[in-house]
Write a structure and sequence with these properties.
- This protein has 2 domains: 2-122, Nuclear Transport Factor 2, Chain: A; 143-273, Nuclear Transport Factor 2, Chain: A.
- The chain contains 11 helices and 11 strands.
- The chain has helices spanning 2-11, 14-19, 39-51, 105-110, 116-122, 135-138, 147-150, 158-169, 175-179, 197-210, 267-273, and strands at 21-29, 32-35, 54-64, 67-76, 83-91, 96-103, 180-187, 213-224, 227-238, 241-254, 257-264.
- The strands form 2 sheets. Strands 2-1-6-5-4-3 form a 6-stranded mixed β-sheet. Strands 7-11-10-9-8 form a 5-stranded mixed β-sheet.
- A hairpin with a 2-residue loop joins β1 (21-29) and β2 (32-35).
- α5 crosses α11.
- The longest helix has 14 residues, at 197-210.
- The two termini are 30 Å apart.
- It holds the Pfam family SnoaL_2.
- This is SnoaL-like domain-containing protein.
- Residues 162-259 form the SnoaL-like domain.
C-alpha cells in the first residue's frame, strides 16, 4: 500500500492505487468526502497542478489491526520546500475502505510562492457543518475519551499518551516541558522547519486564547512499537460561530519521552470553510 500511494503522488499512477480501494470507498480530504471512480482523478489532478513532479524525502508507516497510517514528506523538483502529507487508511486487511488524508496546504502554497488565496481557490467546497455533531460537547452523555479508554491500560506508554492528551483536552500546558525531550523534533502545521517545545506551547495557547469555548475529542489511535498515530478533532466556539478542525498527530516515544511530534491539519481548507475565524491569522510557511 505504501508503494501504491507513493507511486500515485510522485508518478501519477492512478490505476494501481484505485485497484486497492473498494468500489464503495471514500477519500476524505480538505474537509470533504469524495466517492466514485473519479475521486482520485481530482485529488491527483490538483496535487500535480500545484507541485509538479515530486520525490519522497522521508516516509513512515504505522499499522495496527485495520488501521494503516502513512506519513510522507514530499519535495518537488524545484526544491523550494517540503510538504507533509498524512494518509489514514481503514482496511479490511486486503482492500481500502476509506481514506482520511491531510496535506499541509500552507506548505503547498509556499512552494511556488503562490498566495494562500490562490491555493484556497483551487480547493473543493467543504462538506456542510452539521450542528447536531456538536451535541456531544453541549450535552455530554458519556465521559470524554482518553487514550487509555481506547487502548489497553497495560499498553506501553499509555500514561504518557494520557498526559499528552491533557495538553489539548485540559489545557495542561505544563505537560509540554515534562513530556517532551529537550531536543524533541516538533513539526507543526504551516511551519517550514521543525520547532522546539516553546513553539508548541505558543501553538496550543493561541487556540485556547482565540476560542471562547474549546472541546477536543479523540477519534482513533494506532500504535506500532514506539510510534503512535492519533486522529482527533478540535471543536469550539469563536464568539457566536462554531468551528471544527480535524488533526492527525504522530508521536515517537523513546525512554518515556516524546522525541518526535508531527501534527498536521489543513489550514487553508479550514480558513475557506470558516472565513471569519482568527484561529490561524496569518498562515505562512
Amino acid at each position: 500500500m505504501l508503494d501504491s500511494i507513493i507511486n500515485a503522488f510522485t508518478k501519477g499512477d492512478l490505476a494501481d492505487l484505485n485497484s486497492k480501494m473498494l468500489h464503495s470507498a471514500y477519500w476524505g480530504q480538505h474537509n470533504a468526502k469524495f466517492y466514485g471512480s473519479e475521486k482520485l482523478n481530482m485529488i491527483l489532478g490538483n496535487w500535480f497542478a500545484l507541485t509538479g513532479k515530486c520525490t519522497v524525502l522521508a516516509h513512515q508507516t504505522i499499522k495496527q489491526n485495520n488501521h494503516y497510517v502513512v506519513y510522507l514528506t514530499f519535495e518537488p523538483t524545484n526544491k523550494n520546500g517540503t510538504i507533509n502529507y498524512v494518509f489514514w487508511l481503514e482496511t479490511n486487511q486486503l482492500m481500502v475502505k476509506s481514506v482520511l488524508a491531510i496535506v499541509d496546504t500552507v506548505q503547498l502554497a509556499a512552494l511556488n510562492q503562490d498566495s494562500p488565496e490562490k491555493v484556497s481557490d483551487n480547493l473543493p467546497s467543504t462538506d456542510p457543518l452539521v450542528i447536531s455533531d456538536y451535541d456531544q460537547q453541549d450535552n455530554l452523555q458519556n465521559n470524554i475519551a482518553w487514550p487509555s479508554n481506547l487502548i489497553s491500560k497495560q499498553a506501553q506508554n499509555v500514561e504518557i499518551l494520557d498526559q499528552w492528551w491533557a495538553i489539548w483536552s485540559q489545557k495542561q500546558l505544563a505537560n509540554i516541558n515534562t513530556l517532551y525531550n529537550d531536543d524533541a523534533v516538533i513539526n507543526l502545521p504551516g511551519d517550514k522547519h521543525p520547532q522546539k517545545r516553546e513553539r508548541l506551547f505558543e501553538f496550543v495557547l493561541s487556540k485556547i486564547n482565540t476560542l471562547t469555548r474549546m472541546f477536543t475529542q479523540i477519534e482513533d489511535i494506532a500504535i506500532e512499537g514506539q510510534d503512535v498515530a492519533i486522529k482527533w478533532f478540535l471543536d469550539g466556539d469563536e464568539g457566536e460561530n462554531k468551528i471544527r478542525l480535524p488533526f492527525i498527530t504522530l508521536l515517537k516515544i523513546e525512554n518515556s519521552k516524546i522525541t518526535v511530534d508531527t501534527t498536521v491539519c489543513d489550514i487553508l481548507a479550514f480558513n475557506k470553510n470558516f472565513s471569519t475565524s482568527h484561529v490561524f491569522k496569518q498562515p505562512t510557511a
